[in-house]
Amino acid sequence: MGLRSREEYIQSLRDGREIYYRGQKVDDVTTHEVLKAAVSHAADLYSLAQDEKYRDMLVYNDPVYGEISKFYRIPRSSNDLMERFELIYETTRLGRGMFNIIKAIGSDAIFAIMMVAKQLDAVMGTEYYDHIM
What domains sit in the chain, N to C, each tagged with a CATH number? Predict the structure, then answer.
């Protein structure tokens, strides 16, 4: 499948989901007067990942899933955490100081949920961790 392009990401937001902003229904977040700025900022990461200059910084070849965003590479060592810090720092710098919440905080949340799911599975005999993966 490969990594999404900027255009594929933007198009994926036009999937019929129901969105409201300040109590008003939004027909298309990609063209909304206020929200389109956030969409564009998030889409910048997809553009950077396609750029050979930044590809090594943003793309990881996962043995199971193939090419994925390095934001979703599960940190397993202190070196991995330092690489993640540098990734977040550099993408924030490239975003002209705007922190990219879509992947940085989103993946942090996924990693936290994975840890809790693993503990819950051990106690309850569930399979939440596998579902997250």
Answer: 6-73 (1.10.3140.10)
